[in-house]
Amino acid sequence: MAQYQITVDSQLLQQLFLGNSKDSGVAKLLESVLNQVLQAQATEQLSAEPYERTDERQGYRNGTYPHQLTTRVGTITLRVPRIRNGKFSTEMFARYQRSEQALVLALMEMVVNGVSTRKVSQITEELCGTEFSKSTVSDLCKRLDPIVTAWNNRNLRESFYPFLIVDALVLKVREEGRVRSRGVMLAYGVNTEGYREVLGLMLGDSESEASWSEFFSWLKDRGLRGVELIVSDQHGGLVRAIRTHFQGVTWQRCQTHFMRNILDATPKQLQEELYPRVRAILDAPDLETARLLLQQTVETYESKATKATSVLENGFDDATAVLLLPEKYRKRLRTTNGMERLNEEIRRRERVIRIFPNRESVIRLIGALLIEIDEKWASKKYLDMAEYLEWRDVYGRIKVQRIAAENCRVPPQF
Questions:
Q1: In sequence order, what are the beta bridge partners of 190?
Q2: What is the pTM of this model?
Q3: For residue 235, how many other CB atoms are within 10 A of its CB?
Q4: Per-residue three-class SS string for the chain
Q5: Residues 312, 310: Cα–Cα separation, whole Å
Q6: pLDDT tier, 206 (very low <50, low <70, confident <90, very high otherwise)
Q7: What is the mean pLDDT of residues 389-397?
Q8: b vs e for 345-381, b when ≥16 Cβ sit within 10 Å of the residue's Cβ?
Q9: Environment class of residue 319 by beta-carbon count within 10 Å: exposed (0-12), middle (13-18) or buried (19+)?
Q10: Residue 159: per-residue pLDDT
């Protein structure tokens, strides 16, 4: 680890200890220290002090540019050294978080490819220095891409994932001189230890059954196993792919999307009246109660809201599949809301880009962000799985005994 010699003048110390605002004193002290560090780093990279003549010199200083940094003690102004060959900017950029690196890389690629706006140029200039080239972008990509690729293709065989939540985003990507809509398929799982884990992402041409089939095959090839419940919306291609690749696995239709579908089919004057009825069905303590409430709702509204009751009846079994689970697991597994929050984080960065310069930048940006989210998830348990694992064993035994009885055979002893 590099060590730097820092000097602090008496005026700064006086402001720190005797000034009216301690925060302003700390801010000035921090500003002084960081600016000295920046100059020391420039000296390290150039292998020469300012105005020093030496055969080992790696380049030349070209002044500084101001960069404001907001901290807990106020906004400070850094004087970032300029290096004629741009290497210092590259080193400073490497200190950003992976997701910020990927975001700025996408912006830089837009500029290099000549499709940027003036605002994008200003952002990249502020973050990366006054100039950067295709070789600079390529060098930075080489540093980040292997990290994202290794994470996105890691082996999943170390864990079992009883719960799988999947969804897709539609983004715009520039390909062959045209802007095309592409689907980004995402999945996260909850393992038997109760931790959430982002399992991976894949960029497809669309959200078709073929794209989802390729995505699921890829996850299974990497070792995805133990899936017992899949939560998603009712996208046709997605549902067909689930039934093909996860035969026998319970599918939970997202209740948020289901409710939206019902209300869309309900006459406007009846929406407020029907909503609590449907909500009561979905929040029922068990399937028997839910079916009773369903029957009452259909009888009441069949003639007044025919389409809505048809949607409700047809989707009831898939939307209430979660009622088979112990109550403590239902709230987090009855919708894709957790995935929607993940999507919102992606959208925050996607809105800055608007149109990705190529496919690689999509995987780089979203993958880098997901790595950081995955690391945060690893520090906090999402569900206590003990009750579920016990329930699963009991439920499995009952199911085996029922099948044996239906086939007139003596059920196995456990």
A1: 163, 196
A2: 0.71
A3: 19
A4: CCCCCCCCCHHHHHHHHHCCCHHHHHHHHHHHHHHHHHHHHHHHHHCCCCCCCCCCCCCCEEEEEEEEEEECCEEEEEEEEEECCCHHHHHHHCCCCHHHHHHHHHHHHHHHCCCCCHHHHHHHHHHHCCCCCHHHHHHHHHHHHHHHHHHHCCCCCCCCCCEEEEEEEEEEEEECCEEEEEEEEEEEEECCCCCEEEEEEEEECCCCHHHHHHHHHHHHHCCCCCCCEEEECCCHHHHHHHHHHCCCCEEEECHHHHHHHHHHCCCHHHHHHHHHHHHHHHCCCCHHHHHHHHHHHHHHHCCCCHHHHHHHHHHHHHHCHHHHCCHHHHHHHCCCHHHHHHHHHHHHHHHHHCCECCHHHHHHHHHHHHHHHHHHHCCCCCCCCHHHHHHHHHHHHHHHHHHHHHCCCCCCCC
A5: 5
A6: confident
A7: 82
A8: ebeebbeebeebbeebbbbbbbbbbbbebbeebeeee
A9: buried
A10: 94
Tokens 């925050």 sit at which residue?
348
